Every structure is written in C-alpha cells, then in structure tokens.
Amino acid sequence: MIIREAHFPGRAPLDAYGNGGFRFADMSHRGSLMCLPSGIHGWEPADPERLTVRDFERLLTEADGIEILIVGMGRELRRIPEPLREAFRAAGISCDPMSTGSAVRTYNVLLAEDRAVAAALIAVD
C-alpha cells in the first residue's frame, strides 16, 4: 500500500468542519488543512498550541500568490507568535488568527470574492 501526501489540486470552498476534519469538493479529510493557491494540502503542525515558521514553510514558498492568511487556531482564538508574524510581514502577507469555525467561514467568503487568500486550519472535534 502506498500512502501519499493528502492534496487536492485546486481551490474549493470548505463545506463542513468538525469531528477532527473537513469536507470539501465531495471529499473529506481527517486532520488539519492548509489551503493554498496550489491546492488544499493535509497539514499537521508539530504542536498546534505553538505554531512556528517551520509549520508554514510550504505557505511561505508560495507567498507570491497570497495577500491574506486566515489561521484557524482550533476552538479558541490565540495570538500568532511574534517570530511567525514577522515572517508573514516579511513575505507581504496579512495574517488573521481566529477560531477554526470563523476561519472556515471567512476563507469561504474571501475565496468567493476571488481574493488572494490562503488558510491554515487546525482541525477541531
């Protein structure tokens, strides 16, 4: 059996979240997601409570196509650590942390408006 990295090669609105995952494009994914211009990728930050620049390496390599980053922090809103905020600023990305539910809704609206948006979403139960 070959296990491949989870990847949907396109942009799609998120239909649902919860139970440890997300639904989009008539599919479901268990775990966290990173929604980028290159597609929707499975994403597992090393420690969801302490996000680091390393957790966002893929996003930062695609920074040219991203103006706004929505970060779904789980059930509770938490601040983005300063070193990570500095990395986003240096890449010209505006970063907005919020609960995952709010992040899903905001991402869908910005995506429908055809904005240069990305999302990093920590799965919630």
UniProtKB/TrEMBL annotation:
Pfam family, one: DUF498
Protein name, per record: Mth938-like domain-containing protein
Cross-referenced Gene3D superfamilies: MTH938-like
Source taxon at top rank: Bacteria
